[in-house]
Specification:
The protein is mainly α. Helix content is 81%, strand content 0%.
């Protein structure tokens, strides 16, 4: 009998954590990181005020969890697009396009990112950037080894592509409506010459 009870307990914990994360994303989207507080977040749920601290020690921790969750899914989609590529055009446009589409497809995530751009960049970039850069470098090496991409300085290229993606992503969320196709075309034009030499 303890297995079903333990299973229900785990389900409850997962549901509580998901509710807190969803509430936090809404609060950060509305008020921004600096103005948002733990009380604001917990008020958006049906949970007792102390419940928050069973899952997250503070506001930084829940913001970081949202950034990491967002980054993990973005990297998964971008990596899948790059790994399907058989030409430099598919590699670059597929990767950037998948990233830009991910940014704008969910209105809540889009609002969260738009409202917190400076905080994301200055305080929490290290939560996702190293993993994304390492994965891109690995994919560039694989593309070069397969003969799909030209020889190049992988480290410089990976860092440059990540920086361009983040900056264009920032501009993308500031535009109404966001121009995914235009951002993808622009980013692709910057790197295709280097990857096709």
């Amino acid at each position: 009998m303890s297995a079903p009870v333990a299973g229900r307990r785990e389900q409850t914990k997962a549901a509580n954590r998901a509710a807190i994360l969803a509430a936090a994303r809404d609060v950060f989207a509305e008020h921004g990181y600096d103005a948002a507080g733990v009380r604001d977040i917990i008020r958006r749920t049906d949970l007792a005020s102390g419940t928050f601290y069973n899952y997250f020690p503070d506001k930084d921790a829940i913001f970081r969890a949202l950034v990491e969750e967002t980054g993990l899914e973005a990297r998964r989609r971008v990596r899948a697009a790059r790994r399907r590529a058989r030409t430099p055009e598919e590699f670059v446009a597929g990767g950037f396009g998948a990233f830009f589409e991910y940014i704008v497809e969910d209105p809540e995530r889009f609002a969260f990112m738009r409202r917190n751009l400076d905080t994301l960049r200055t305080r929490f970039g290290e939560a996702v950037l190293p993993a994304g850069t390492d994965e891109l470098a690995e994919d560039l090496r694989a593309g070069i080894a397969a003969g799909h991409l030209a020889e190049l300085d992988v480290e410089y290229c990976a860092h440059a592509m990540i920086a361009v993606g983040l900056e264009l992503g920032t501009r993308l969320v500031e535009r109404t409506p966001p121009d995914v196709e235009g951002a993808t075309r622009f980013a692709s034009a910057l790197f295709l010459g280097m990857l096709t030499r």
